[in-house]
Design goal:
The protein has 22 helices and 9 strands. It has 659 residues and is α+β, with helices and mostly antiparallel strands. Mean pLDDT is 80; it is low at 320-331.
Amino acid sequence: MSSPVLPLTWHLARCSGRRGLQSQLLAAGAAAVGSLVLLILLAAYLGAGARADRTAWRTPAPDRHGTAVQALATTYVRDDPVTVVSLAQLPHHARTPAPPGLSAFPKPGETFVSPALAERLRTLPAAQLAARFPRVTGTIGVAGLASPDELLAVIGRSPADPAVAKSAAGDGIWDEGLTARAVISGYSGTRRSLFTSSDQDAVLLGVGLLAVPVAVLASAAGRLGAARREQRLAALRLAGATPRQILAMTAAESAAVGAAGAVTGSLAYGALLPMLAEVPYGIGSWYAGQLWVGLPLLLAVVLAVTGLITVSALSMLRQVAGSPLGVAQQASPRRTRLIRLLLFVAVLVFIKTSARGSDLTPARIVGFIVLFYGAFWMFGPWVVDRLGRVAGRFARRPATLLAGRRLSDDPRGAWRTVSGLVLAGFVAGFFTVGNLAIIGSGFRGDEVAVPTAHGTVAEARTLLKDAGVTAEVRGGDDDFLLGGQRGVVARVTGGPEHVDRALTALQPLGHGRLPYGKAYADAQNITVSNRLAQLATATLAVSFLVAAASAGLTAAANVLDRRRVYGLLRLSGTPLKVLDRARLRETVLPLLVLAGGTTATGVYAAYQLNKAGGGTISTSGAIQLAVCVALGALAMFAAIGASRPLLRKVTADPTRTAD
């Protein structure tokens, strides 16, 4: 005999009416948003790694039996890095294979450039950029590039060219990661480019900050419509259904709704790939294939979201299975226990002691963030419960009394409404006031340095004069701006275009070493700070969007779940305005306390990170933090306000609603 569970589940779902369908659509929407954001986070992490790996071939890997010389150099135009790879075939050696993106090994005097660099060469005057390279004979294919916006040149040289001499390796204090030279037989380098090596670690930090709020949103989807489901299942339990059947029905319904939402989110991810590829990060935009996570991982995310929603729904049925009569009569408010506070304090102590004096690698930081989020997720309902009791005891208005009663009767449901913004407060506090204050090189923006043992100040002045550049030139021996090397330093009069002209004009003076300016000397610091700034912007935006979505979906579902309570209150004479004010205060009370706590914790975490890095708290970040908090609160209230028409609709006929 076949089991009646699935047919009965399908029958009850079809007969649940418009209200039941609305709850299911809200749950599916939450699952769709959760799976979409998780897939985007996973795509960014994997894509950043894949993109960085595609730059490793440019740093030469030495080979004693090499057949060619490869040299890496870096120049700048408008403060944007241009990577220059010089290749020279050694005579009487086997032919060296073509580098990635080229069909053949470049001959001496040939230059291949990336499409983005080719565009710069066309739009900028030759004296500012094009004169730095031999004639351009072709473009570099996708296989040799990490991004469509990357500026890369591959130049063929003769073995006697100074650009591939041993001095091209560079040994100045500013040259780390920007120059290299070795005899090679292939392109097996494993050292990622300076401009991509920190990308994946930064994304990992963002994943740690966003993964838990997204998982919270997905788990909340399994609890949308929980009150309606509990009443229905309690009736079935009283009619003779076994606990196993109740669990099976809930699992089937929630899994179907979760799978539908997760699949919808994955389809949206696939459709949005071309748009996501246009979002700049680090060295520029992406190739769409870099952001494709692959079918196995996509299915894994769909299954994970579906499983999370199913487990979340099943976790609500303990009371239905054990005391169906109490659920049917709504006689047992759910209380929280003091153990939540003790565990939360224990986690905070563990994080503080473990992070003290340790190596704060990105993986450890992410682990601490996830642990903190998990502890706060457990701690939140306990605080909401106590807030409800305090508000109910000292209430002076009906709306406050109703809000306090709802908070203490269902602290978990109230916590789910505000949890997104509460956790987003940590992100805002962490990023807005953070200021690593990395020590710069001391370079001025109008200074250009040329390390050279042969060039003279007179030659530099002549080259600059011929290029139409006005500059004050001085020689240096172990000058700080020269990175401890001998050379020439020029202070250029004019804007960035004159600095670019000077970089181009002084190139012959370096005998293989390229002139450089402030952006070159500060490359490593600028790269790290730019990644953190981009990460902060993206993380704040996504976290507040997830928080608003979570609040809106949960608020709407709560209205549907409480329609019987609202109907009874309306029958007793409670004005609709009072019910709406109670809903608002039910959100504001825990939001002020909990979001304020997480924001302060984020500020403290940023302070500790800045302290470890020798920085200070950013004063301008206080204004940014205030703006973020204000925008987050407005988004939260707007999301809750969007469910006001639904409240009006479900209480339009209180006699029928309360039945």
